[in-house]
């Protein structure tokens, strides 16, 4: 099943892409040699805001990766947004990853919580609690709580979230975007069976992070 209701270039990037291309064209008209760095910037913007379609696994109980990137944490910890003991799986996104965020499960949004904070390197574990972040608490039809937290990074200065309490999301549905390097933490129940390890590369929607009991 494919979940792809938008163009292949994320809508969040259209203004940046338009400005970078117009600037590169203008400099090219003035001096072709000096335009090379501007075309490199335009290509970087194009690759950063790409948002390719993804096939959605239909495995019952699957928790899908909400972001592209690398697994930097798999640990038992406290979920401060639902006040419970949980398993945290963290995905670090560098500037070369796709940065749209997608729902890890089918569920109803219970609460969306935004917290201002610092902008330390999102690869560090303290980023989960110190950095600017936005938490989406989801509850599945079977009553299981899953929390997906967008965390700003060293360069990221903008977290975008398009859902609110009461919204119903399907697995793989696009719900937000983080600009220029960040991470996403997923908090799971303790009886979830994690399918990834630290260092694994994952893809939003297509990679199964865990299976719910």
How would you describe this protein?
This protein is an alpha+beta fold. 16% of the residues lie in helices and 36% in strands. It has helices spanning 14-30, 36-48, 127-130; strands spanning 62-64, 69-79, 84-93, 100-102, 107-115, 133-139, 145-152, 159-161, 168-169, 174-178, 182-188, 193-194, 201-202, 208-211. Strands 9-5-6-7-11-3-2-13 form an 8-stranded antiparallel beta sheet. Strands 1-14-12 form a 3-stranded antiparallel beta sheet, with no helix packed on it. It has a 3-stranded antiparallel beta sheet with strand order 4-10-8, with no helix packed on it. The radius of gyration is 18 Å and the shape is elongated. The protein starts with 13 loop residues before the first helix and ends with a strand.
Straight-line distance between termini? 23 Å
> Largest sheet, described in full?
8 strands, antiparallel
- In the CATH hierarchy, the architecture of the largest domain is Distorted Sandwich
The count of domains is 2
Strand order of the largest sheet: 9-5-6-7-11-3-2-13
Extract low-pLDDT stretches. none
H/E series: HHEEEEEHEEEEEEEEE
Backbone shape: elongated
**What's the total number of strands?**
14
CATH topology of the largest domain: Glucose Permease (Domain IIA)
Indicate the structural class. alpha+beta
> What kind of oligomer do you see?
single chain
């Amino acid at each position: 099943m494919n979940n792809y209701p938008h163009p292949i270039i994320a809508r969040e990037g259209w203004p940046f892409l338009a400005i970078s291309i117009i600037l590169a064209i203008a400099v090219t008209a003035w001096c072709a040699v000096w335009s090379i760095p501007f075309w490199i910037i335009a290509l970087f913007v194009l690759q950063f805001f790409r948002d390719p379609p993804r096939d959605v696994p239909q495995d019952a109980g699957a928790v899908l990766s909400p972001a592209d990137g690398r697994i930097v944490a798999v640990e038992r910890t406290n979920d401060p947004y639902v006040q419970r003991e949980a398993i945290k799986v963290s995905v670090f996104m560098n500037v070369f990853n796709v940065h749209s965020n997608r729902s890890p499960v089918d569920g109803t949004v219970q609460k969306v919580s935004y917290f201002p904070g610092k902008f330390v390197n999102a690869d560090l574990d303290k980023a989960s609690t110190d950095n600017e972040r936005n938490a989406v608490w989801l509850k599945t039809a079977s009553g299981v709580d899953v929390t997906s937290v967008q965390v700003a990074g060293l360069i990221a200065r903008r977290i975008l979230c398009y859902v609110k309490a009461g919204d119903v999301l399907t697995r793989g549905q696009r719900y937000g975007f983080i600009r220029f390097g960040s991470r996403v933490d997923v908090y799971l129940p303790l009886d979830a069976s994690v399918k990834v390890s630290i260092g694994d590369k994952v893809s939003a929607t297509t990679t199964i992070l865990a299976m719910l009991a």
